[in-house]
Amino acid sequence: MALIVQKFGGSSVADPESIKRVARRIIETKNAGNDVAVVVSAMGDTTDDLIDQALSIDSNPPAREMDMLMTAGERISMSLLAMAIHAAGSHAYSFTGSQAGFMTDAQFGTAHIKAVKPDRVRRALNKGSVAIVAGFQGVNEGGDATTLGRGGSDTSAVALAVALDADVCEIYTDVDGVFTADPRIVPTARRIPVIDYESMLEMSSCGSKVLALRCVEYAQRFNMPLHVRSSFSHRSGTLIVPEGVDPRTLPNI
């Protein structure tokens, strides 16, 4: 049995049908004999819509209140996904970033994770349930909600995987892995089956949008294997692994 953390981005949970598809993928992974923790982004353009609403009311909104507002998107997707898993005959618990033990500094909008204490997540997994965590968010020492900035849900997923000592962190998106160029723009772009951290960091720093730079840095620091996959297919995707790790030893490959 392996412990797998799966992260699903906004395009993967954009609408009810997409959420149901993600629920089936999670249950499939669990039925294969794995423990599964999940990190989700807000649905589709929810975050952008919330920002637009805020700016229509206050052109210079307080940072604390913006973070309070921004955490709403992931709360919606996490609870709907838990309901979809329940409707499909399995069981899940959803947790906000603070409930999942994501402790951050006090920098609203671009907070950094100081510690992850996923006690409630562990208890859910020990019960045999799927644990669903709202990405992109945490709580500071004062008890205020904080958000992690661009790529925050990817970083949340890696941080949770590290805290749980997971076997692999799967990042699900709308492309079939990491490519030599954006396949939606360059038809001849090739998928990269396996890549090391340094090469992935270089691609992220040069503008690749598949993985956020902070996410890859966090994974490298703790040697957490990453598996970038599409939530719309079962293709093999791209593995980002520490030096010396045989990709064939990782679960769910």
From TrEMBL:
<comment type="function">
    <text>Catalyzes the phosphorylation of the beta-carboxyl group of aspartic acid with ATP to yield 4-phospho-L-aspartate, which is involved in the branched biosynthetic pathway leading to the biosynthesis of amino acids lysine, threonine, isoleucine and methionine.</text>
</comment>
<dbReference type="InterPro" id="IPR001048">
    <property type="entry name" value="Asp/Glu/Uridylate_kinase"/>
</dbReference>
<keyword id="KW-0418">Kinase</keyword>
<dbReference type="InterPro" id="IPR018042">
    <property type="entry name" value="Aspartate_kinase_CS"/>
</dbReference>
<dbReference type="InterPro" id="IPR041740">
    <property type="entry name" value="AKii-LysC-BS"/>
</dbReference>
<dbReference type="InterPro" id="IPR001341">
    <property type="entry name" value="Asp_kinase"/>
</dbReference>
<feature type="domain" description="Aspartate/glutamate/uridylate kinase">
    <location>
        <begin position="3"/>
        <end position="230"/>
    </location>
</feature>
<dbReference type="InterPro" id="IPR036393">
    <property type="entry name" value="AceGlu_kinase-like_sf"/>
</dbReference>
<keyword id="KW-0808">Transferase</keyword>
<comment type="similarity">
    <text>Belongs to the aspartokinase family.</text>
</comment>
<keyword id="KW-0028">Amino-acid biosynthesis</keyword>
<comment type="pathway">
    <text>Amino-acid biosynthesis; L-lysine biosynthesis via DAP pathway; (S)-tetrahydrodipicolinate from L-aspartate: step 1/4.</text>
</comment>
<dbReference type="Pfam" id="PF00696">
    <property type="entry name" value="AA_kinase"/>
</dbReference>
<keyword id="KW-0067">ATP-binding</keyword>
<keyword id="KW-0220">Diaminopimelate biosynthesis</keyword>
<protein>
    <recommendedName>
        <fullName>Aspartokinase</fullName>
        <ecNumber>2.7.2.4</ecNumber>
    </recommendedName>
</protein>
<keyword id="KW-0457">Lysine biosynthesis</keyword>
<comment type="pathway">
    <text>Amino-acid biosynthesis; L-methionine biosynthesis via de novo pathway; L-homoserine from L-aspartate: step 1/3.</text>
</comment>
<keyword id="KW-0547">Nucleotide-binding</keyword>
<dbReference type="GO" id="GO:0004072">
    <property type="term" value="F:aspartate kinase activity"/>
</dbReference>
